[in-house]
Each structure stands twice: as C-alpha cells, then as structure tokens.
Amino acid sequence: MCADASDGTHVVTAFLRHRGDVLLLCRSDAVGTYQGRWGGVSGFAEGDPDEQVRAEIREETGLEPGESVSLVRSGRPVEFADPVLEREWVVHPYLFDADSREIELSEEHDALEWVSPTVAIDPDDDRETVPELWTAYERVAPTVRSIAADDEHGAASLSIRALEVVRDRAGLLVAEREEFGTDPDGEWDELAELAGRLLEARPSMAVLRNRVNRAMSEAVDAASDGESVPGAPAVLDSAIAGIERATAADTDAAAAAGELIDGTVSTLSRSGTVLEALRGGDPVRIFVAESRPAREGIDVAEALVEDDAIDCPVTVHTDAAAVHVCSQEGIDRVVVGADTVLQDGSVVNKTGTRALALAAAHEGIPVTVVAATDKLSTREEVNLESGSRSAVYDGDASLDVVNPTFDVTPAACVSEIVTERGSLEAGGVEAVVEELRGLEDWRDR
C-alpha cells in the first residue's frame, strides 16, 4: 500500500504494547510539529506505510520489528484537518506487541512512559497528546470480535485482551462524563453488557471468564456511596488492576515452574507461561511438537533458539512422534500449559497434550502443567473448540473431517499443577474453584 500525498499528508503511528500498557513518547523540539505533545511511534509515510512504520520503530525505540516487536494489526487510516497548521493529515495506525520495555530514545523525543492508553482521553491527565491519538488507537485496539476470532494466542493472553476491552470502554465512558454528565446506571448497563459478551466469546477459556468476573466483581465492591451500581471509574480502576494482577500471576506461575525444570524437556503448542518457565529453568535439551494444523510449535522452537536465556539444543518433531520421543530421547519432564483446569484436576489444552501426557505416564515421566489459578474452571461441562475443516483437508472427496482444537488430559496423567501460589493438590483445586465461584454473582448484587 503506497501513500498518495495528493489527498493529505500521510503519517504512520505505531502503538507498542507490553503487559497491557502502550508506549507514549513526548515529542522534542527536534521534530517539526506538535513539540511537547505525547504520541506513539510516528513519522511521515512517503512510500509504503507498512515498511515505514517498521523503520520508525527501529529508529525511535531501538527495537527490531520481527524480533523483539511483532505486528498485531493495522487499522483504517484516520483523516482529519488541523486548522492551525492548515494541514490535512492521514494517519495509518498500527499495533505491535513488544517483548521488552527497554527503549533507546532518539533525538525526536524527550521522554517516554508505558501507560494505559486511556490516558489519551483522561480529563484529569496532564499530558497533552497529538490530535486524534485515541481515535487512532481505537482503530487497532482489541475487540470482542478480535478475541473470538484469535486462533494464534493462548488463553492467558486473550484474557488480558478481554480486560483491555473493558478498560478501554470504561475509560471512554469516564471521558464522556464531561460532555454528557454522570450516569452510573447507564454506564454500568453498557459495561455489564460488554462483559457478558466477553464471557461467552471463548467459552472453553476459564481464565478469560474468571478475570473478567473478578474485574466486574471488584468494581461492584468499590461502588461509591450512594450508587446502586458502580460507575465507569470503578470499572476502569478494577480492569487496570486486573491486567496488572493477571500479568503478575502468569509471571509468578512461570517462575515457580522454572525451579522444577532441568534435564531434557518436552513440550508442545504455544504458551507464553511455558516459554517463561523454560527461560527460568535449566534445561539441557528441549523437544517441541509442531502442533498441527497451525504448527505454532515451530514458532515456539524458533523463539527458543533465538532466546539468549536458552542455552541448549532445541528439536522439533511431528505430533505423531511424541510417543517415540518420550520412549527414546531420555525425556526428564513434560511441561505444558493449560487453557482450562477442570475441578477434578484434568486439563484442557491444545490437541496433542493428552497423547503426550499418556506417553509420558507410560514411561514414568512427570507431567508439569503451568497455569495461573485463574485458569481453574467453575463449570462442570467442557466446551471444546474445533478448527476449520480446510486446515485438515481441502480436497474434493466427500470426506468427514474432525479437527478438534483442544483435548482433555486426565488428572491421573498430571503430576502437578504449578500456579502463582505454588503446586496445587486436589484439595487446593477445590478451594480455588469455590473462591472463583464467588466472583460470578456480580450481576446479582
């Protein structure tokens, strides 16, 4: 896509996201416009905006797109006129995920902060932002639809995206109070409806339900005196706190699991928590099943090889070879994530987990599941998602196709469930489930 300067001045703006926050930069006197204002990574797009935005990220942050920074999505351009500058702007917005907050500022900026994007519209925030920054962010922000359609990221990641959706909407409602006045009942109705849609966006992911329920339940508890329901400010605060708690829980669970990891390890699929656990452990070799049909295991293996914290050989293999690997390669431990942990201790995870765990149990290999306690399900039923038919077979023969995305690993095949609270025994699972059930009644209070 090439920018046509005849219909305005084209610029790119990239929002870099890390642990739920986005990077805002304060523009210095070295830039030609909007000095002293806060914005994303930006620059003129004289050619292809997709190429230019990566060049700007490299120049303004020192991060390398494709390595420490990955594209999430681009959005529809934002067009507006600045009457003071007498200029028509066309802003091409992008959202990237960053692996680190270590930024090397260029001369174009004086300061940086990692903040909730809602500061761009917060009436009490003293940062002056570049024009239409919030509009540009909304074009690339997560939505209920993007969460429901996401087949690339794990449950923990999507649960944080869900909290971001609640946070962003609550932040907008807070900002609209200046224009439309205070209406806690109307705000709560809108946010409760949004939370309800998020709860059912990915029915197999207990962690998404639990984290949204906690945010809404804590907002109810924090409702101001005299309010029958919490207003948008309470929901905004609880969603921001929920994001911070969620990222900390995943990190702590990974750290606890990392203490158990040494020797030769086998894993599959893509779990950010498992990746962190491997980085914090002391493996001497890692085997990764490719995890068809999306083959996200290949991405994991490549990430491990490129990670400075991993100093051991990494081997990929077909899913069908998992049994062979367990029996022939001296595996010391199987480490997997979980989309959901059921009340009896069985584990819902990417298809192939059950086969790997059964093979490990047959060989006497311990199976460690790494999962924050929010992944425990309060529901007895299991809703297993399926992938597309064409991912398995796209030929013309009249074949039936089965493409389950998740399977259930029996509790008997799981040696331990490692959480931010340490390893859970059977009684511990039941206690956490009862605690999580208590968060579900926010709509009835």
TrEMBL record:
Domain of life where this protein originates: Archaea
SUPFAM superfamilies: NagB/RpiA/CoA transferase-like (SSF100950), Nudix (SSF55811)
Pfam families in UniProt: IF-2B, NUDIX
The keyword Protein biosynthesis is annotated on this UniProt entry: yes
One MF term in the entry's GO annotations: S-methyl-5-thioribose-1-phosphate isomerase activity
Keyword terms: Initiation factor, Protein biosynthesis
Name assigned to this protein: Initiation factor 2B related protein
GO BP: L-methionine salvage from methylthioadenosine
Domain Nudix hydrolase: 7-137
Presence of keyword Protein biosynthesis: yes
UniProt organism field: Natronorubrum tibetense GA33
InterPro entries per record: IF-2B-related, IF_2B-like_C, NagB/RpiA_transferase-like, NUDIX_hydrolase-like_dom_sf, NUDIX_hydrolase_dom
